[in-house]
Write a structure and sequence with these properties.
alpha+beta, Jelly Rolls, 3 domains, 625 residues, six-stranded antiparallel β-sheet
Length: 625
């Protein structure tokens, strides 16, 4: 008897963990009857990722009460919100920090700082009652339970709405079928406005993975793209120094031709620990290629979110030469040269490859659009030196050898060169800038190895990483003691961490450029200060859930049980459990000295440094050689 012929089928793919495990078949059916899902074509989605599966796994239903803050200006998020019933109000005018449950950091004078130091409690992590909960003084708390979740409320929201409606900047009402927050969700950017529930409302929260799949429906994708292009794309393009002098008509034509692409996983921190253990070459090979070395450049790549690794092939391996972050461009040298080259000269191919480090979101401007719409308006100081010289030569020939104009071109180029290098970080950041950096012990740093080490361990994410020169550090722990004295008797870091040669990257909050710790906080207690960029915890609205600590890929946030100045522990009046708060480095924002750890180091061995750029670390190493 012949065996039956086997049938090959594709294994169905399912989500590992639903966003809301309580959503059932009835909820999914109800959602399918509402817009925009009612108009979606189920055939637009693969069988392994059906529309019903997205609604079941990538969404969460919320019932919001009037005055509840849904999203706050400046916060980060990875989800958008669809209004199903009721209405929400977009507050155009920025609200006061205290209205949003935040507290401003007051810079202490030397006298005040000394008085606070001398009057500190001898008990670690001590708090006054008003520092533990926003309702400690008898007022109605900003944080209340709605169903089974903590929610933050705007105090006197009706008065705020009345006052705003009477002014020039009126709040925008969002009703059923309208979506908000999709730009911040898709592109990992801060929320640009505060949205509150105007009436009792039912919202559907859609995480970014679901949004991305829902874009398979052309109508839904067109709506999101149209909204982004109408409201945000030209703003993002204008922020690029290369385009700051572009006429409005040219900018609009550039925007119309620009494409948007993402590479890698937005939730890169979930794989961080596993990926960092790979050998460097294996790690590089695992990263999605954005643009390949040796290929003809077809687009100018602008990094909008995340980081990219710039690498070059050496033999059978790849060597990291730079990394690019938000606002950096890739391929400018080659595209600009090809646009200006003499007919007899061959075109340039890409000299390096660009790969996504975990996640990278980018804008792509076609090379021909760059040549026609952008290049004629670019200041030579914004261009790579080789291309700038080519522009001068072309203009010199066009002017028939007019040395007066030629010298003027040279002077303009010279004036702008320093500003372009220090501020704009244009094309292929840092390539060729790294040289052998001698250590104080007479050894030679391996610059490429250091760059690869930084990227492999993702410390390029830090805007204020704690870096220690181990050749100068005597392990006296004065930095730790100073931190403890400033922060309730409990230091906000430990003097340990990964090291490369004599440079150690200490395990302290780096104030990340991509702060994944801020995503998922139920009350928005962890936020970035808009002036200093420091990521802070606002104790009165921190519910101690530990979401931020679990999300931090570097384990730089810790949960601590808090006590009053006499050492008596705070407990929850309902459950009797200890009150916990998230703790982390806050860069000693209130201290006149700045970071206490840096000020206390007697050997000048410690620095807080921005690693999202390669230049600051290079300058620090050069200065110490």
């Amino acid at each position: 008897m012949q065996p039956e012929e086997s049938i090959a089928v594709r294994r169905p793919e399912r989500w590992g963990e639903p966003m809301d495990a309580s959503i059932n078949d009835g909820d999914v059916s109800w959602l399918r009857s509402r817009e925009p899902f009612a108009s979606m074509d189920s055939d637009s989605f693969p069988r392994s990722i059906p529309l019903e599966g997205i609604l079941r796994n990538d969404t969460r239903l919320h019932r919001c009460e009037p005055g509840e803050i849904i999203v706050r200006e400046g916060d980060y998020g990875n989800s958008a919100f669809l209004v199903l019933a009721g209405s929400a109000a977009v507050i155009v005018k920025s609200l006061l920090p205290e209205q949003l449950g935040r507290s401003e950091v007051e810079k202490l004078s030397w006298t005040e700082a000394l008085r606070k130091y001398l009057g500190r409690s001898r008990h670690p992590e001590s708090r006054r009652p008003d520092q533990v909960t926003s309702g400690a003084n008898g007022d109605s708390s900003n944080v209340r339970q709605v169903d089974d979740r903590p929610a933050l409320f705007l105090q006197d929201f009706e008065a705020v709405l009345r006052r705003d409606r009477s002014g020039a900047q009126r709040p925008v009402t969002i009703g059923p079928g309208e979506i908000f927050g999709e730009v911040a969700a898709m592109y990992r950017s801060p929320r640009t406005a505060t949205v509150i529930a105007e009436t009792e409302a039912t919202l559907l929260e859609i995480r970014w993975q679901g949004l991305k799949i829902l874009r398979r429906d052309k109508g839904f994708a067109d709506t999101l793209d149209r909204h982004y292009r109408q409201n945000w794309l030209t703003i993002h393009l204008r922020e690029l120094p290369l385009l700051r002098h572009l006429p409005e008509a040219n900018l609009n034509r550039v925007a119309a031709s620009t494409q948007m692409h993402s590479f890698g996983r937005m939730e890169w921190h979930a794989d961080y620990k596993k990926i960092r253990e790979l050998p460097v070459q294996k790690q590089i090979e695992s990263e999605p290629v954005v643009a390949a070395e040796g290929r003809m450049p077809t687009d100018l790549v602008i990094v909008r979110s995340g980081f990219g690794r710039v690498s070059k092939t050496y033999g059978a391996s790849d060597r990291t030469t730079a990394y690019l972050g938000k606002g950096h461009v890739f391929g400018l040298d080659e595209i600009a040269y090809n646009s200006l080259r003499p007919e007899s000269a061959p075109p340039k191919t890409l000299d390096h490859s660009l790969r996504a480090i975990g996640f990278l979101d980018a804008l792509f401007i076609p090379a021909e659009v760059f040549a026609e719409e952008i290049l004629p308006h670019v200041r030579r100081s914004e261009l790579p030196e080789s291309v700038s010289e080519l522009v001068t030569t072309v203009n010199h020939k066009r002017l028939g050898g007019d040395t007066k104009h030629h010298d003027s071109d040279r002077r303009e180029e010279s004036r702008g060169r320093t500003d372009r290098r220090s501020a704009d970080r244009a094309s292929n950041l840092g390539q060729g800038d790294w040289k052998d950096l001698p250590s104080s012990e007479g050894q030679q740093f391996q610059p490429t190895g250091l760059l690869e080490f930084i990227v492999q361990n993702r410390v390029n994410n830090g805007t204020a990483a704690m870096v220690v020169d181990l050749s100068r550090c005597t392990r006296c722990d004065d930095c730790v003691k100073a931190c403890a004295s400033t922060h309730d008797g409990n230091p906000r870091f430990v003097r340990q961490g990964i090291a490369h040669e004599q440079i150690q990257f200490v395990q302290a909050c780096m104030q990340c450029s991509d702060p994944v710790c801020m995503i998922g906080c139920p009350t928005g207690a962890i936020t970035r200060d808009k002036d200093s960029g420091v990521v802070r915890i606002h104790d009165p609205i921190c519910v101690g859930c530990g979401t931020c600590a679990n999300s931090c890929p570097y384990e730089n946030i810790r949960m601590a049980e808090v006590v009053d100045p006499k050492g008596r522990p705070y407990t929850d009046m309902d459950s009797g459990k200890p009150i916990r708060k998230a703790t982390k480095c806050d860069m000693c924002q209130s201290q006149p000295t700045g970071p206490a750890c840096v000020s206390a180091c007697p050997h000048d061995a410690l620095v807080r440094i921005d690693l999202t750029e390669s230049e600051p670390l290079q300058y620090w190493l050069d200065r110490r050689s």
